[in-house]
Amino acid sequence: MPIGLHHLRYFVAVAEERHVSRAAARLRISQPSLSAQIQYLENKVGVALVQRHSRGVTLTPAGEAFVHHARAALAAADTAIDAARLSAHGQAGSIRVGFIVGTQIEITSGILSLFQECHPRVVVELVEHSFADPSGGLNRDEVDVAFVMPPFQHSALEFLHLFETPRIAVMPSSHPLASRAAISVTELFDDPWVVADTDDVVCRDFWLAMSQRTRPATLGQRTRSLDKFIQLVVSSNTVGLGAAWMQEVFTRPGVTYVPVTDVAPATTALAWNPARTSGLTEHFIGTAREVLAPTC
Which fold has domain 167-264? Predict the structure, then answer.
């Protein structure tokens, strides 16, 4: 049998009490059993750790060296146990949070801030994803939760909808429809469209308004970022759909935003895989629900 943590605890008790009988009473074991365990420990270490005498025991030089490391080992073990328990209850550890370009909005920032405030011992690793992976890393099991903009392809993910905003047309300021107060998306179907550079057909078709087309879209260049999207609209006379908040964030010469009357809004959601949740994941979802509650 190798040396175990109980041997270290027994030895530390004897070292602190300087007496086997008192240490045995403290540990609630019999004196003969404790003496046998200390003898076993000395045999395993290969040197005498205590010197026995009529008044009790004193530590040998080897025992003095040993007790210091024994205490450190016991403290490390207790720390490991506490960390495991805290992690199981969502109070410590680390969590990977994916996010898609465009989900950095007030409510998602609020969720992250509140979670960190309530879980100061948890390391939150933010993992940014482009349009190439609209699942924010969940489909490849790269993150624990993700802020996303559905719809997109996935298998059994669950969603908590956080925010909705209208989709608007993004077009060059020189476009014939740029001066209109609002348009139908069908009025843009003769134009070339900027297309999201992704293999996810569900995501790509949503932003191309494919459900309302009767013929294939005319596609312009592809992009994985909103900055490039705007540059392509201005420089190549292409159009596209974006979330309404883009008008505030990307106000630039040469680009115009026009409300669209007949497309579904853009949704920001928290997503996770229910088959791979942990205590931390559940706490993060709970924080999101808490932030969302006043607006429900």
Answer: D-Maltodextrin-Binding Protein; domain 2 (3.40.190)
